[in-house]
Design a protein that fits this description.
heterodimer, A: Rossmann fold, 5-stranded mixed sheet, 37% helix, globular, B: alpha+beta, 5-stranded antiparallel sheet, two-stranded parallel sheet, 3 helices
Chain lengths: 134, 141
């Protein structure tokens, strides 16, 4: 099973987007898509709701970074074992949460980070699909 | 019941649930009440304390509007559930956060690896969880 992690706010890469549908259909086997949200860490697309993002901006950045990093790391220890390959889209400041949370975990050997390309969606789709199928 | 460390050990002890108190709105604040051990999960209980000197009527309206949503579990993160409860023992409104033991272990493991001291979950996280649950239920605060 594959996992694709989309940082919060990545343009044109929501679960229902054409990009994501194309990638998921191109990946071999089952592929789950999750969001990386500040404060919450990794949240499944089914549990995601815009209400989750209300009120997160009152938290000091340092505290938010720590809370999110712990949530990400805890999620990885709890859930990552079931995935063969984890693909992370590298977009914006959300990567701070990922880097602090995931660094040094044994699951990093399954992880492939793909840089977001705002002007080349076709290339990005191809790279994400290839990363899933490696 | 109360496993919160004393001041002396605050810097060296790691606990899962933050102590608070934390103000949630003009109507009420939350304060750590204690922990309970369930069969599958550890439950952190937070008392919902009205700021009575400000808006007593508003708090009563809030409690009334919350009644249909009592004991309903809400999950955002796998292994974590939260609910508003009204225990018979205290007969006062509480917010309960249940974390499965395996999930709690991963929190402690992560905290150890990241050298975190004090509480692993922040009070902001608990407050955000409470607010989100209220928003999803459509209850005004």
């Amino acid at each position: 099973m594959n996992l694709i992690i989309i940082p919060f706010g990545t343009p044109n890469w929501g679960v229902q987007s054409d990009n994501m549908k194309s990638v998921v259909s191109g990946c071999k086997g089952k592929t789950n898509v999750v969001y990386l949200l500040p404060q919450w860490g990794i949240v499944s697309s089914r549990a995601y709701h815009p209400d989750l993002l209300k009120g997160i901006y009152n938290t000091p950045e340092k505290k938010m970074l720590q809370t999110t990093a712990v949530a990400v790391r805890s999620w990885l220890h709890h859930q990552a074992e079931q995935y063969k390959r984890i693909v992370v889209l590298n977009y914006g400041h959300s990567m701070k949460f990922w880097n602090k949370g995931a660094a040094g975990t044994p699951f990093m050997q399954k992880v492939k980070v793909i840089r977001y390309l705002p002007r080349s969606p076709a290339v990005l789709r191809r790279r994400v699909t290839r990363a899933c199928n490696e | 019941m109360n496993d919160i460390p004393t001041k002396k050990t605050d810097e060296t002890t790691v606990v899962l649930f933050p102590k608070g108190p934390a103000r949630v709105s003009d109507t009420f604040e939350i304060a750590f009440h204690g922990i309970m051990r369930g069969k599958k999960s550890i439950i952190g209980r937070y008392s919902i304390v009205p700021l009575t000197d400000r808006n007593p009527a508003t708090f009563q309206t809030f409690v009334r509007s919350l009644k249909p949503f009592l004991n309903r579990n809400y999950t955002v993160v796998p292994g974590t559930r939260s609910a508003f409860v009204l225990p018979k023992s205290t007969n006062s409104l509480e917010f309960a956060v249940a974390i499965d033991y395996d999930k709690a272990n991963t929190y402690f493991k992560s905290a150890e690896e990241m050298n975190i001291r004090g509480s692993i979950l922040s009070i902001d996280f608990i407050r955000l969880l409470l607010k989100t649950q209220l928003q999803r239920a459509g209850v005004q605060i």
